[in-house]
Design a protein that fits this description.
single chain; 10 helices; five-stranded parallel sheet; Dna Ligase, domain 1; D-amino Acid Aminotransferase, Chain A, domain 1; alpha+beta; 3 domains; Rossmann fold
Length: about 375
């Protein structure tokens, strides 16, 4: 890059939530100036950056005017105005991940078509223009319906189990896909820089909150066979290279009961399935993302120890000013690291923080993580 990291580089981040917050914590080490755009005046990043602007991530003029004086822009959320990013790219602002990658991943239908075109294994699917089109699908019930756009953290997903469920199906453009009889949900974080260097973090195993349909518990490294882990990591590398992405890419997958790996969805940014890397790996996902977009050598992704990540979700039945119970007690457990996201208000199942538990003994790490789940609560 033309500018070195001596306080000259102006880096913009679209989104000021917890991912932006943790990215800033890493970026401080590079002495870059951080500019944040977020629609929430109380966003977690507001007091940590060099410049904070409250505004819509989906508005063309807001995104363009925010970015036109910067050297580089990255994202912590995909729901941004891509047209504005394309114009900024045309005018010489570096946008990583590239606007074309963000545009593809914003649309789950385009993601699925990309998988099919590039021989990436995924569940059988069909694209639907509206709810009425579901009557003509060749997929047999039950199946999953996903909105093509704007779904995240379990939102925008419906199970269509019987013909009666069709009455409450999504009206908007969607896709339907076969329900995968999986043994485990797994993920691989992969990074690629502009010189084409690609590295993966070790495959992780995930458990989901059944009520909220988002990651609640993650274990790293996996104990599945070397062959399965290698297959998952090679798939992630293939996708990163096929996309020619610059930056970080989270690849969420299903491991079926027959031992097959099917790719589910992509996220072109730091991801919930990589939070454990802050304490659990030699390089964190946030450090790797910065290395990738700055076109620096990618860091060592090996695990330092067994690591278990627990999402701190707002307790059901509580909404209002956030209050954390049990922080002091869990910090008395061996290997516990607490990350609170600075969100002023809690509501049921909102991501309010995470805890990473590291230990040389895997079972001890898991046991301590289960204790954290029992003790640490976010209420109002």
């Amino acid at each position: 890059m033309a500018k070195d990291f001596y306080g000259e580089l102006q880096l913009g981040i679209l989104g000021g939530g917890q991912l932006g917050r943790m990215l800033i914590q890493e970026a401080i080490n590079y002495n870059v100036n951080i500019h944040i755009l977020d629609p929430d005046k109380n966003a977690p990043c507001r007091k940590l950056c060099n410049h904070f602007e409250c505004g819509s991530l989906g508005d063309y003029d807001t995104v363009y005017n925010f970015g036109k004086g910067l050297d580089m822009i990255t994202i912590e959320i995909e729901k941004v105005n891509v047209d504005a990013l394309e114009r900024l790219e045309d005018e010489g602002v570096l946008v990583y991940p590239q606007s074309r990658v963000i545009r593809l991943i914003q649309d789950k239908g385009l993601q699925k078509q990309f998988f099919k075109q590039n021989d990436i294994p995924t569940a059988a699917f069909q694209l639907m223009s509206n709810k009425e089109a579901l009557a003509n699908t060749s997929l047999r019930l039950p199946y999953v319906q996903k909105l093509r756009r704007d779904g995240y953290d379990g939102k925008g997903v419906k199970m269509i189990r019987t013909s009666e469920d069709l009455a409450t199906a999504f009206e908007e453009p969607s896709l339907v896909e076969e329900i995968v009889d999986f043994e485990k949900e797994i993920a691989v974080i992969v990074a690629r820089n502009d010189r084409g260097e690609v590295k993966t973090f070790p495959m992780v195993e995930m458990e989901f909150n059944a009520q909220a349909n988002l990651v609640e518990f993650l274990i790293s490294p996996s104990t599945y066979s070397f062959e399965i882990q290698q297959q998952a990591e090679e798939l992630a590398k293939k996708i990163a290279n096929d996309l020619q992405i610059v930056g970080l890419l989270a690849v969420e997958m299903f491991l079926t009961k027959e031992g097959e790996i099917l790719v589910n969805e992509l996220a072109p940014r730091p991801h919930n399935s990589g939070h454990h890397t802050i304490e659990g790996n030699y390089t964190s996902q946030f450090g790797q993302h910065l290395r990738a977009i700055f076109n620096l050598p990618l860091g060592n992704t090996e695990a330092r120890a067994n690591a278990v990540m627990i999402n701190l979700l707002g307790e059901d039945g509580y909404e209002g000013l956030a209050k954390y119970e049990g922080v002091e007690e869990v910090l008395g457990l061996d290997g516990v690291y607490v990350h609170l996201y600075g969100k002023k208000y809690t509501k049921p199942f909102r991501k309010m923080g995470h805890v990473c538990v590291v230990h040389h003994d895997r079972e001890t790490a898991i046991a301590n993580a289960r204790k954290v789940q029992e003790i640490l609560k976010v209420i109002a």
